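Hi P.,

Sorry for the delay on this. The queue was packed all week, but I finally got your sequence through. Input first:
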Amino acid sequence: MFPSVSNPTAELSLGSEEVPGKSRRSPLQTLYNGEQLELSEEQRSLQDRRELLEEACLSHTKKRRVLSPKDLKHLIVDDKHGLIYCYVPKVACTNWKRVLMVLGSGGRYTDPLAIPANEAHVAGKLRSLSDLSPAEINQRLRSYLKFIFVREPFERLVSAYRNKFTRSYNTAFHKRYGTKIVRRHRQNPSPEALEQGNDVSFREFVQYLVDPRTQRDEPFNEHWERVHSLCHPCLIHYDVVGKYETLETDAQAVLRLAGVEGTVRFPTSGKSTRTDGNMAARFFKHITPLYQRKLFNLYRMDFLLFNYSTPEYLRTR
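Then the structure:
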């Protein structure tokens, strides 16, 4: 239904008059016109990531297909500033949604952190690209700045596990997924564990992920779905590929391109127990080489597309 967009110069030729309510230079024009001049280190880094992603897509994707509306559910649209953001859970997406709520609030919100986290995730608070007509979707894909933030796949996965399965308040996840995981992957589970599903181990979670029945039954939950399945980076040309590892610098670059760096600040993380490579290594220590290999194969495309090295702690033989 929607042709994939992979040529930024074609996007540029549309000009800013196609962006509703805007007459100044669009973020897309700012990015690519700036690149005709001498590139700053930051611009060079963003360009390198785009090129690496494009090369990886050419090398590892066999055939292109047409986008459908369900492919676009994770793409949030900001018409006022000419932005499209594909949100990836566990990659600062709560703070990005808060920032976009501030930008679209007409002054009602000024501080992203004043917006409760649960409010940022309420359906309908932000406009999804999938809600628009095919013509509106195509026009925005061509003329808006499209950005995505990614993270080392196994650090994101461990972060999702810690958040959804080790926090007592996440009872909905325990009931929805934990009980199923315990039933399938634990020998002689207790009646309490079968009913509550609140003590799933990381090993059981990994077994659940690589079990062929899991994806046959239903799609992965967005918190552990692969980024390439959520955001389709080989079908949609992302102008900025931000990384969790350089979050503050990359977020600032997006806000500067949108011309709003003086209006809103991207919140800095105050977390002291952020999931990093060392923490991921501790979790993977208890996973057998066979399951490590199966899990790596499952997330392999995210490692390849976003230029992440195979973790040193992996034992796949």
